[in-house]
Amino acid sequence: MIAEKDLASYWLHAHGFFTMQSIKVGKNKEIDILAVRVHEGKVQNIQQVELSTSISTSANLTLDAMTLPESVEKFIEKRFDDGMILAEMEKRLAALGKKSYERVVVLGAMAAANRKQAAELLEQRQISVIRIENILFDIMNTIDRQDYHPTMRALQLIKFMLLSKPAKLAALIENEAGIFNQAAKERFIQQLLSQHAVKRILGKEENQELLAVLLRESRIKPEILAQLIAGLLTTRAKPRFLQAFLETKEQPEPMDRKDKELTGFLESVK
């Protein structure tokens, strides 16, 4: 879990916190991250940050057969309410001149419905929840080319040497064993096409052939396509479209090789 702690600590630093990782409080017990924000020389607030960052769609926080509510309670008891951890936090608070602190969980992957319920159960116990993908997004969105420690260096390489290469990124998305399953691919395309910048790119003249291919292979029913076009065109544009359509329709369709061969054969036997 070293990488996850590095990522969470980096993110906390960006939000004005100093951090300490892996504070030992007894045999096989530790506080994942202690975060302290100081403003104008005074301690403003303190957070105890615990991580549960599985990348598999587990059923609960403790990766066992417990029900989700039981799992959340076990997690809280082990990570926050353990006597040795509470004693360590009291000692740290006294040293910093504070009497209270915030409890935070960085939450990784779970089955979607379970994750939502787990977050709600934690928040009911006054524990804030930060989703790990939000931390990763903030880091990837802002990380630059400066020198960082190994965990951040790995993200730099992913951002600047992989995700910045359109062909590589497209291959990752297309790959069946890659980033997305089929449902996620569809949501990704929908969100991508809703962006103004993407609409502007697709509207360029050099991309008209691509749009034609997309429409041709989309299997849209003619009546649906007609409704879409009617909705896109202004009153002034509709007559021009109809004229252009009729002119295109009057042009003979090109024959493929087999059609040409058949026509030549028929003419030869006349």
Any guess at the CATH architecture of the domain at 2-153? 3-Layer(aba) Sandwich
Number of strands: 5
End-to-end Cα distance: 82 Å
CATH topological fold name of the domain at 2-153: Trna Endonuclease, Chain: A, domain 1
Work out the helix count.
Answer: 13
Derived structural class:
alpha/beta
Major sheet attributes: 5 strands, mixed
Across the major sheet, the strand order is 1-2-3-4-5
Order of helices and strands: HEEEHHEHEHHHHHHHHH
The geometry reads as elongated
Query: Low-confidence segments, ≥5 residues, pLDDT <50?
Result: none
CA-based gyration radius: 29 Å
Share in β-strands: 15-25%
What is the percent of helical residues? 55-70%
Keywords:
270 residues, alpha/beta, Trna Endonuclease, Chain: A, domain 1, five-stranded mixed beta sheet, 5 strands
Structure explained in plain terms:
- With about 270 residues, this protein is of the alpha/beta class.
- Among the domains are: about 1-155, Trna Endonuclease, Chain: A, domain 1, CATH 3.40.1350.10; about 220-250.
- The chain has helices at about 1-15, 70-80, 85-95, 110-125, 130-140, 150-165, 165-175, 180-195, 195-200, 210-215, 220-230, 235-250, 255-270, and strands at about 15-25, 30-40, 40-50, 100-105, 125-130.
- Helix 1 crosses helix 5.
